[in-house]
Amino acid sequence: MRAKRVFLIVLDSYGIGALPDAHLFNDSECNTLASIAASKAYHTPHMKRLGLFNIDGVNCLEAEAAPIGSYGRMAERSMGKDTTIGHWEIAGLVSEKALPTYPNGFPKEVLEAFKKKTGRNVICNKPYSGTDVIRDYGQQHVETGDLIVYTSADSVFQIAAHEEVVPLEELYGYCKIAREILQGEHGVGRVIARPFIGKSPDFNRTAHRHDYSLIPPKRTMLDALTENGLDTIGIGKIYDIFAGKGIGETQSIVSNVDGMEKTLEMIDKDFTGLCFVNLVDFDMLYGHRNDIEGYAKAAAVFDRQLGTFMEKMKEDDVLIITADHGCDPGAPGTDHTREYTPMLAYGRAIKPNVSLGTRESFADIGATVLDLFGLPISIDGASFLQEILK
């Protein structure tokens, strides 16, 4: 065992430039990091020290003369650009086939089965922005009780409902029904509850979102860690992304800041294993809303908390920072973008200033985590530990 604890932090959507096949995903020109780094609000000195701007292809800001971390550029092998596929690959599960998407809405057989089991009608059934859909359909929903069902460019079935019309537990029950229906051919990555409040035209989404993911179809690093008696702690929506599979403990969060505060609390706890963190605000609040300034400010806030985290790290802790896809707020549209992601590794056991170049798969991170705990690599991916270990 080379580490007692590994902290794996996923900056949701923090892409660093278009993958070679981005044109196949309608993302020929995208670079999340370049878009936000151009903002005066962008300030991430700690990630810079770790080597963020020394990574292959990253030239939007000045590189660090002597980075204190190891760093690399991760390519996605899976056929997708969404949260589920990205996290599964980080954890060592490459998805050769894309999860189904519905640019023309869900087919009749899916909706009829859903309506029959819920006893409610459905409105919308189109790809839509989450804020726009409640603006355009919210009043009709309030008046009729019909559920707003919509999707996006991702493999998602989303249900929006007013909390005073459909109580939260009832909405969550409808999502579970949808999850049972959406298997096999129509096995979308996530069913998402999207509750909102307010009066027209001032409807607002609440923090009571809940995701119901497809169970990972293959083994992940979480399974391997659990089977070997190691702790697996999920912070943020990690539990939802993996449908609880391989997660021993979970903590929900209300923001990036809250997520990092909970991660900082874990530094002071005695555990042996993995703390796996997702910070979704980058994607949900800023990337999808084309808010370059907001994204840049959120990056600066994270970096300040990162500095505190690094100071508190113990002798046998290892920190890995990465992302699951891009969501370039400066690109056309509001969807995820098919991008490379960063990998920054730091700890007293990790060599400084080691460039890993470009890695073939996010799954190399999962393989490296297993290697850090001295476990055999029983998942997709190749460990890069020997290149970065002192």
Can you identify the CATH class of the largest domain? Answer: Alpha Beta
The side-by-side strand order for the widest beta sheet comes to 10-9-11-1-12-13-2-14
What portion of residues is helical? 25-40%
Q: Could you say how many structural domains there are in total?
A: 2
> Low-confidence stretches at least 5 residues in length (pLDDT < 50)?
none
* CATH fold call of the largest domain: Alkaline Phosphatase, subunit A
Count of distinct strands: 14
CATH superfamily of the largest domain: Alkaline Phosphatase, subunit A
CATH 2nd-level architecture of the largest domain: 3-Layer(aba) Sandwich
From the alpha-carbon coordinates, what is the Rg to the nearest angstrom? 20 Å
**Roughly what fraction of the amino acids lie in strands?**
15-25%
Would you give an account of this structure?
The chain has helices spanning 32-37, 45-50, 83-90, 108-118, 130-144, 168-181, 221-227, 238-241, 256-267, 281-287, 292-312, 363-372, 385-388, and strands at residues 5-11, 70-74, 122-127, 147-151, 156-162, 190-197, 204-205, 210-213, 231-235, 249-251, 273-279, 317-322, 341-346, 354-359. With 390 residues, it is an alpha/beta fold. It folds into 2 domains: 5-97 and 215-388, Alkaline Phosphatase, subunit A; 108-213, 2-Layer Sandwich (Alpha-Beta Plaits), CATH 3.30.70.1250. The strands form 2 sheets. Strands 10-9-11-1-12-13-2-14 form an 8-stranded mixed beta sheet, with helices on both faces. Strands 3, 4, 5, 6, 7 and 8 form a 6-stranded mixed beta sheet that branches. Helix 4 packs across helix 6 (168-181), helix 9 (256-267) packs parallel to helix 11 (292-312) and helix 10 packs antiparallel against helix 11. The radius of gyration is 20 Å and the shape is globular. The mean pLDDT is 96.
